[in-house]
Design goal:
2 copies of one chain form a homodimer.
Chain A lengths: L1 E2 L2 E2 L3 E5 L5 E7 L8 E5 L2 H9 L6 H17 L8 H13 L6 H14 L5 H38 L7 E5 L16 H8 L4 E6 L6 H13 L3 E4 L4 H6 L5 E4 L3 E2 L5 E4 L2 H10 L4 E4 L23 H4 E6 L2 E6 L12 E4 L6 E4 L2 E3 L4 H6 L1
Helix pairs in contact in A: 1-2, 2-3, 2-4, 2-5, 3-4, 4-5, 5-6
Chain lengths: ~375, ~375
């Protein structure tokens, strides 16, 4: 999407001055206050970037993993007889860099099955590069299709009244910063905005890591989409007041019955939407489906450091400072995700179309 | 309650070195990082303390207003013939210092009706002092009674299993820091803890002003009550996981039908409690009832500065620093309260006993 009018992607493959392959990405840790494109020059640097969340978001992690796999193939001594084992070893390290990310596992698996067909290292490099680039382009295309399908929902609300502003609530960042371009939850919003439909986005700040207040607000602002940041506590009241026309969120994992894991707090917004007859949509690429799991009860929920609750980083007199928010000796608990039961989800917006939980398996398998 | 083993109150009347009346209170703006008792030496200083939230919480604001009214009576020239008008004028300024605070209005009204009986300034001073001290002591007694009634609920859960730890979720700060002592929502918790019942409190951080993470966590910690700070987003997941036995919150205003205004985000927790069969209690002194209003739709909801969402204060290398959390040019919206419909409230815990919404008018009028 646009940054100050110039189209950008979150990740792309390039060549270093010496001709070696490098991966460019955005360092999202300092956003929204500073934004830097950084060059990742090795699979080890890709692993650090995933582990330390320089980049985040399921599709972007998948793309980074696929590109990291390609970098790995360029790091092997061309005379090594165990090149296949060496690549596989690095692939497993990439896979372990963010254990709950389904797309990461999927991207590595796809690369490994193509690696199996390579007869030599040179072929392995070519296959891995092409697969990584395919994954990147496919992600852009998938998000674009999610956008096209979701656009119809926004358009229908917009048509309810002349000059209607469609108020859309979103949680966390399922935006282009989490993907390669367009985003998942934001794709319909960008397409509606680009088409001239009046939209306004309520951006949940999304404690404790504030991906909404920092990333979603940033990307909407840079693309020129009207938006307002709200505390996570406010969405219920806004829905009671009739100030939300629809919710769209992304997801980290959807089980066969439609139960949906997403950033902690999503479930509370789904409850409020249900209580106030506000439609609640989950946008997802089919790669986010986890066909192995029957229901949300089987989804493991990551617990992260309590430090993310007790401290926060922000801008103070031009530099980033981390401040303590709580009594130093009070413990904190930091769940990464929660599970929204399928019954609270109006529909899923996928690259293959819009469907209910009951139709999910069919549309995803088509 | 105790601060490191020493019993304290949040506000009390004392004499300055020159014999003039002063009011001591806690400056809650720097908490939990620093805590200072400060002397308020005039009604004007009381007004500033209420306006700028050095002190907050409906009952504490009421007590401060009553004491401020008494200070006002000591500030009038003893030869002034219009002493009654002068006091009334200051009283109206105190009343206007936090327009949505029901207890403030109630305390000023009570002082004014007693002022009407005073035959001279000296009598007005005596009456105002006694009324202020009565309001302070009554608040302590009311909170103690709320605690005694609520204790029975905690005790019943504790008795469900040997060594059962009762997990209680609370939102914002309806603790002793919001009252004179005990608190409203926390009173049952303190009484259970003091009785040796095993309790553990999930403390919602309560964005944007973080009264939970800063004040509730601080006061529970200082009194020795086990607790864990959680992001506001986490409560729903904890309830889904069966890790919450009950919720208790305070309230700023309850209407005749039992609809309950409380800190923004309370409604979301009530929805989650309802969805997971977790009992949801509202603790309130009868002074918080607003008999003028039929339902929550009539409650005006205060909108506060967007700055409270965009910036946050915390401790950095030993000093308080305010940091920017959002893109500088993104707007934010900051509602102070939301309304929880009576149907989501299991029962009200009042100084007169425990009752449902349907029984509220009867118990409060008894």
């Amino acid at each position: 999407m646009n940054i100050n009018g110039v189209p950008h992607r979150t990740i792309w493959l390039a060549q270093d001055a010496d001709g070696s392959a490098i991966v460019w990405t955005l360092d999202q840790r300092k956003m929204p206050h500073f934004f830097d494109f950084i060059a990742l020059k090795s699979s080890a640097e890709i692993i650090v970037a995933i582990e330390e969340m320089w980049l985040r978001g399921a599709p972007l992690i998948g793309a980074a993993a696929a590109l990291g796999f390609y970098l790995a193939t360029t790091e092997i001594d061309k005379n090594a007889s165990d090149w296949r084992e060496q690549i596989t070893e690095i692939a497993e390290k990439i896979r372990a860099s963010r254990p709950t990310a389904v797309n990461l596992n999927w991207a590595i698996q796809r690369q490994l099955s193509i690696l199996a067909k390579a007869k030599n290292l040179n072929e392995a490099q070519n296959f891995a590069q092409q697969t990584a680039l395919d994954i990147v382009e496919e992600d852009v295309e998938i998000c674009k299709q999610i956008g096209a399908h979701g656009l119809s929902i926004i358009e229908a609300i917009s048509n309810q009244a002349p000059d209607k502003i469609v108020n859309i609530l979103t949680h966390c960042n399922a935006g282009w910063l989490a993907c390669v371009d367009w985003g998942t939850a934001t794709a319909p919003i960008y397409q509606a905005h680009d088409k001239g439909i009046k939209v306004h986005v309520w951006v949940d700040e999304t404690r404790p890591r504030n991906q909404g207040a920092s990333l979603t607000a940033w990307e909407l602002g840079k693309h020129g989409v009207p938006h307002t940041i709200i505390p996570d506590n406010a969405g219920g009241h806004l829905m009671q007041q009739g100030r939300v026309d629809m919710c769209i969120v992304g997801t980290d994992r959807v089980t066969r019955n439609g139960d949906t894991a997403n950033k902690i707090g999503t479930y509370l917004k789904a409850l409020a939407a249900h209580d106030n007859n506000v439609p609640f949509y989950v946008a997802l690429p089919s790669t986010t489906m986890d066909f192995e799991l029957q229901t949300g009860a089987e989804i493991p929920i990551e617990t992260r450091s309590e430090r993310e609750v007790k401290y926060i980083q922000g801008l103070h007199e031009g530099t980033l400072k981390e401040v303590l928010l709580t009594p130093n000796d009070s413990p904190a608990l930091n769940y990464g995700f929660d599970v929204t039961p399928a019954k609270y989800i109006t529909a899923f917006i996928t690259e293959k179309g819009i469907c209910t939980a009951a139709e999910l398996l069919k549309i995803m398998n088509d």
